[in-house]
Amino acid sequence: MVGLEELQGLFQPSINQTNKMALLAWAKETCTDLVQINGQRRYGGPPPGWVGDPPPAGTEVFIGKLPQDMYENVLIPLFQSVGRLYEFRLMMTFSGLNRGFAYAKYSSRRGAKEAIAAFNNFEVREGCAIVVCKSTEKCELSVDGLAASVSQRELEALLRQVTAGLHSVTLCASPCQKRAQLAVLKYSSHQAAAMAKKTLMEGNSVEMRVAWLNPDLKQKLQLCKEKPSSSRVQGGKSLGGPKQAPLSPALCNALDRLNALCQKQYLGTPLFLTRCVQANPNGWLRFWCRVVIPGCPMPFSGFTWVRQDGQGRSGHEEAKAAVALQVLRMLGEPSHGVTASPLPFPKSWSISWECEAVMLFLSAAGCQL
After folding, report:
1. CATH of residue 101
2. Residues 130 and 252 in one domain
3. Are residues 258 and 301 in the same domain?
4. Which of 205, 272, 204 is nearest to 234 (CA)?
5. Are 109 and 168 in a shared domain?
6. Measuring CA to CA, which residue among 136, 14, 21, 119 is closest to residue 76?
7. N or C, which terminus of the chain has less Cβ within 10 Å?
């Protein structure tokens, strides 16, 4: 919630003082709570006294061509005059001006229709007519560049931990990248999809592209179905994906043992996330790693050093194997002589691990599933 002092601090001295003070006075008199986050100032969602689920799709309108020094003290009463508002979002600049557009979500589709009929081309000031039309509530995202080994079940389990409101996940062969997959993510609302998009895009590399689902692409993917289970990940290996050079017997054994342990305990298939954060001239690579085991309440995460051996094995695959060995140790499983490659630093520096009750993320430079 933005208090009066905080609200006042959002304005630069050059902002129209009359309009600024009018907003502050209105917020105080009406006890209106305004929340500013991610470049927008929001009222409601839900408003005070709201009972039940959010309004259905088709209840939001887009408001454009707003004067940049016009605020909620004028806009909310105006748009409330034709129907009950569930939410009002005014897009803001860092200087305290609005960005010229806003969104008003009504409690019913009728309210949205009334707003369009009443306020499209309405002059909020002399010579300043605004645009009001139906909002395109995008609810679907495309995530391109996923590894061929990723399964729908594992991806969905991971996404439900990092985003809210996920409705469905569909996996298809990527139309743009060879040996890669494209995921279509459908969310319960535009806001849920927008927040998911922001989460997935933060720190993302060019290898994985997150965007609103393009209508043309959606049409091309209509007949797309999830890949058969024979190509899904099993213990860190893909049964149907491109072939890679085999891991060393010791490291491969660590992956197999972790997978077997999880199956024995009915914990689900482990999902590995790896990101290369440092590369040394001598060939050593430092990886940030996270292991998500569906049946465990918290993920395992930390750092490890690996070295590519020149036999065609991916550094990510080597990191997964080293991580599997460490997780086995953390779970109390004896190593039985299984060790990873010698490290470039003292052993105490090699891997630092911690169990975290924090959100996972997919988007990271060089992140692979």
Report:
1. 3.30.70.330
2. no
3. yes
4. 272
5. no
6. 119
7. N
CA angle 245, 326, 293 (to 5 degrees): 85
| Residue 48: cis peptide before it, omega within 30 degrees of 0 | no
Is the residue at 321 inside a domain?
A: yes
The tokens for 15 are 């902002």
Q: What is the pLDDT of residues 40-51, one digit of tens each?
A: 999 998 999 999
> What are 278-336's pLDDT values in tens digits?
877 777 888 888 888 887 777 888 888 877 655 555 777 888 888 888 888 777 766 55
Model pTM score = 0.49
Q: What is each CA distance from 218 to 45, 148, 153, 226, in whole angstroms?
A: 29, 20, 21, 15
d(CA 28, CA 85): 19
Amino acid letter for position 120? N
Q: Pick the closest to residue 309 from 341, 280, 349 (CA basis).
A: 341
- Total domains in the fold of the chain: 3
Longest dimension (CA), the chain: 82
- The answer on 112 and 21 residing in a single domain is yes
CA angle 222, 223, 226 (to 5 degrees): 105
